[in-house]
């Protein structure tokens, strides 16, 4: 009985200290995450202007019906156009990020010398240290008609003197924003995959080699299944990062790029809420984007059936 009382007392002390340490994080997220979400949900039902002294007017679901108005689809500021631009950007960036970061991580871990591994890890991860604004500014210089973008593409395709209009053509503008995000974030996800690969016991690979498995069979039958938790983590993080993209598209439009092809949801929220001062409509867009991100995250967890991995 005395041992049980002592163990119960220790558990109470541990739970008490755990609650003390968790409280600051809960307060932080409540102030900076939970409250803005709830406030945006409430404001999405009102017609509210930023600099107007008039009290907010309750309009119900009018903001939602307005942003989903199909007749406004041709307008560059249309929310449906922003959804299209966001999903095009996400698909064009998310899939290459996931596949290439996994392949590069496998290549880096397969190097024999540790020095080469560190050099490649630093080289890949360096762009991730830069802010999105700095990364976009660097690529704006590259995409200039006299920049390295045309030079590289002309050298590759043997088309000297051709201007590929990186910031003028609608398709090229979309590709340009995808390139910037791919270059900036691939190193971060490579490091995550390398961490996942190094957590797999070498004994598993040794047993497979003894059984006569080749490299492709080892990768497909052993590495990928055991790397499943990391794949789920990277896929969710990269997808959410693509859906939240803003700074690259904003800087590109400020430097002459067309708004319609790259007017993603976050940029439209900024244009509607700050420039047009329609906080109610911007809040409705924010709630819809939040629900989309929540649904896609749940879908990935559901599709992955993330159970515990056993070796």
What does this structure look like?
By secondary structure, the protein is an all-alpha fold. It has one domain (39-46, 55-304): MetI-like (MetI-like fold). The chain is 74% helix and 1% strand. The chain contains 14 helices and 2 strands, in the order αββααααααααααααα. It has helices spanning 2-43, 62-67, 79-109, 114-129, 132-142, 148-157, 170-198, 202-210, 215-226, 228-243, 247-254, 259-262, 265-275, 279-304; strands spanning 46-47, 57-58. It has a two-stranded antiparallel sheet with strand order 1-2. α1 (2-43) crosses α14, α4 (114-129) crosses α7 and α5 crosses α11 (247-254). The two termini are 40 Å apart.
Largest sheet data: 2 strands, antiparallel
> How would you describe the shape?
globular
Q: From the helix content, strand content and strand pairing, which structural class follows?
A: mainly alpha
Give the proportion of residues in helices.
over 70%
Instruction: State the separation between the terminal residues, measured CA to CA.
Output: 40 Å
Total number of domains: 1
The strand order across the widest sheet is 1-2
Let me know the number of strands: 2
- The CATH homologous superfamily name equals MetI-like
CATH architecture: Orthogonal Bundle
Mean pLDDT: 86
Topology-level CATH name: MetI-like fold
């Amino acid at each position: 009985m005395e041992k049980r009382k002592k163990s119960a007392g220790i558990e109470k002390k541990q739970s008490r200290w755990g609650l003390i340490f968790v409280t600051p994080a809960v307060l932080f997220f409540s102030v900076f995450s939970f409250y803005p979400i709830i406030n945006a949900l409430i404001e999405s039902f009102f017609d509210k202007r930023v600099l107007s002294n008039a009290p907010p007017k309750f309009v119900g679901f009018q903001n939602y019906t307005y942003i989903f108005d199909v007749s406004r689809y041709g307008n560059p500021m249309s929310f449906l156009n922003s959804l299209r631009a966001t999903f095009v950007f996400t698909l064009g960036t998310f899939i290459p990020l996931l596949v290439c970061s996994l392949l590069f991580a496998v290549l880096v871990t397969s190097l024999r010398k540790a020095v080469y591994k560190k050099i490649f890890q630093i080289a890949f991860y360096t762009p991730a240290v830069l802010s999105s604004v700095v990364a976009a500014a660097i690529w704006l210089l590259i995409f200039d008609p006299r920049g390295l973008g045309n030079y590289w593409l002309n050298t590759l395709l043997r088309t000297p003197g051709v201007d590929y209009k990186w910031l003028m053509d609608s398709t090229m503008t979309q590709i340009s924003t995808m390139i910037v995000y791919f270059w900036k974030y691939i190193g971060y996800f490579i490091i995550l995959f390398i961490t996942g690969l190094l957590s797999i016991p070498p004994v598993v690979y040794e047993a497979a080699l003894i059984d006569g498995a080749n490299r492709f069979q080892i990768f497909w039958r052993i590495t990928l299944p055991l790397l499943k938790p990391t794949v789920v983590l990277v896929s969710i993080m990269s997808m959410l990062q693509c859906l939240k993209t803003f700074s690259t598209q904003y800087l590109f439009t400020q430097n002459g790029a067309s708004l319609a092809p790259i007017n993603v949801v976050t940029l439209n929220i900024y244009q509607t809420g700050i420039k047009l001062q329609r906080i109610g409509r911007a809040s409705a867009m924010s709630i819809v984007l939040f629900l989309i991100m929540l649904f896609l995250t749940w879908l990935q967890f559901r599709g992955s059936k993330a159970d515990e991995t056993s070796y």
